Amino acid sequence: MGYDNTIDYMKLDSVESATEVTTILDWAQAAGKRTGFVTNTRMGHATPGALYAKTVSRFWECENDWKKDIEDGLVTEEDIKNFKPKDITLQLVESEAGKNIDIMLGGGRAAWQPREELRWDYDSDEWNCSRWDGRNLINEWQGNHTGGIYIENRTELMDLENQDVDSVLGIFANTYVTWDDLVNDTNDKPRLVDMATQAVKFLQKKSDSEGYFLMVEGGKIDQAHHNGKAVRALSETLAFDKAVEEVLNLVNLTDTLVIVTADHAHTMSIGGYTGREVDITGVVMRPDGTVDLGEDDKTFTVLSYGNGPGFSQFNATGEGDFTFIARHPMEVGATANLAYLQASAAPLSSETHGGDDVGIWAAGPMAHLVHGVHEQSYVAHVMSYAACIGPHKEKARCPQTSGSQVLRGGLVLAMVL
User: Given its phi and psi angles, is residue 366 left (phi above 0), alpha (psi -120 to 50 degrees) or beta?
Assistant: First the structure.
């Protein structure tokens, strides 16, 4: 992450010959734009990390991550001593790109602080990542941003509009931010829409004629899919959609480009000859109301996965063919709840990504450049050209000074992951 294609995964010596690449964050900061990111995963996770970090492993969010890789034989302790890599969270605090981010909101507090007890799972606020160096990076960030503010709940986040501060660090969980459906007044956790809109308002207030860049990640969709829970993934998709809707209500599309896209698919599929009015979280029923059954004379759900934890719900009643597999079918008329585990075709503890092309949508100046099928690197060139930053800053349509004749407002990249 942060290098060209000559970098080798987990090979620290490959850093010596690899070339570091610049990012949209670098381009925006060089042009004098205010910058920020929002994620409901962790601040050191792959998508926000790609903005500022240089590493041979996207998983190295804290020192504990490479200690596990040493135990697994993926990297040697000697290489760690010789090359002295910095974990991704430390880079966020120490790198120039990280220091110059005006607002960052998300999860991952465990990687910022020392902690002795290490636990982690997808469905809790525990994460087995902590600082072995004994440093408290929250305190260090505050020391580097004396005009900034550190916040850790929704109440403090929504009060930002009343604060006159230069920068904001908001960390709302030890690991991923709370599921949207579990947010309530008691736990005082923010929703993605809260973080996204407050970040836009802050950057609008702080930016001058050069405008701003903001990346918003709806990464809990990905988390739900890995868990094999399609209905919860749909719930998080609606939460992401709400965030996009409210951001569009805040920005002026005459001078702000908003791009919505994704970085990968999942193995979830929509199957069966299902009627138009059938609940997608239920079983397959034909347009005439008859129930579709499998070869085992049992119902099957509209949503399923190519692989993942759902396979573990099957039981074998004896040796033989598929007729000895006991499924637990959903009843006709029933619908899956947020915790329902969809069936999968192969047993994995965590469902994988898929190879599908993903969608991309845009609104605002130069949005007409988003059409058809493109390589992913094309998206960066669209943002560069539209904002007159980075490699396209000297195009004929751009002014001699930094910034763009068009994007005097903002550049918002919303990522559904």
Answer: left
